[in-house]
Specification:
single chain, alpha+beta, two-stranded parallel sheet, 8 helices, 8 strands, 33% helix, globular
């Protein structure tokens, strides 16, 4: 029965209509007419600690995606720069595909942001991870959630950037696809990451 369910889910995910809904409709549905509750002082505290190579995990509890994606987090991104000379400092896969963002963009669309760092990424390797991530600039969003670099979803972009597979991540099948799947929550449960900052625990 579980195999049949998995096949049905995969068929739905791989359909053109699901791709359209995922990219054109779902990202814009939010069950709240007001701003997220992410104040500027939290943004500043997080930004002070952010370094290139850090993994950013987020959630907006009012977005439809938060109800559809099981787990503590529903989005992941990678910090790739922190210089006033560059136009973007965070890479992410969104409904607009490979997206060049800034930490501010991440925070203003979230109710919770967490920064984690892989303890097994040394300085030289971290730079290589960043360059690998930037090489995905023309890759489309993976609406079928298939592992591989032909198309990428958000957390998959992070793991594919880690080309030596140093991240000790959890491939827990949170969605019920019946196949290996790396979710943002799976990234947060990697055994060799350290928590750098979590907006949830910040108080003024």
């Amino acid at each position: 029965m579980k195999k049949i369910y998995s096949k049905i889910i995969l068929k739905i995910f791989q359909s053109a209509i699901f791709s359209y809904i995922l990219l054109k409709l779902i990202p814009y549905i939010r069950f709240n007419f007001y701003y997220t509750n992410f104040p500027g002082w939290k943004y500043k505290r997080g930004y002070r600690l952010l370094k290139p190579g850090d993994i950013i995990l987020t959630k907006d509890k009012w977005k439809l995606t938060s109800f559809l994606i099981p787990g503590e987090f529903c989005h992941a991104a990678l910090s790739v720069d922190k210089s006033m000379a560059t136009e973007f400092e965070v890479a992410e896969m969104t409904h607009t595909h490979f997206t060049k963002s800034n930490f501010y963009d991440i925070c203003r669309q979230s109710t919770r942001v967490k920064i984690v760092r892989c303890i097994d990424w040394d300085k030289d390797y971290t730079q290589k991870v960043i360059e690998k991530c930037k090489s995905f600039k023309d890759v489309k969003y993976d609406t079928g959630f298939q592992l591989g670099v032909k198309a990428l979803y958000c957390s998959e972009m992070v793991t594919e950037s880690d080309f030596e597979n140093r991240l000790q991540i959890s491939y827990e099948d949170c969605v019920g696809l019946g196949m290996p799947y790396i979710s943002p929550t799976g990234l947060s449960r990697a055994t060799n990451i350290e928590e750098i900052w979590d907006s949830k625990t910040e108080v003024l």
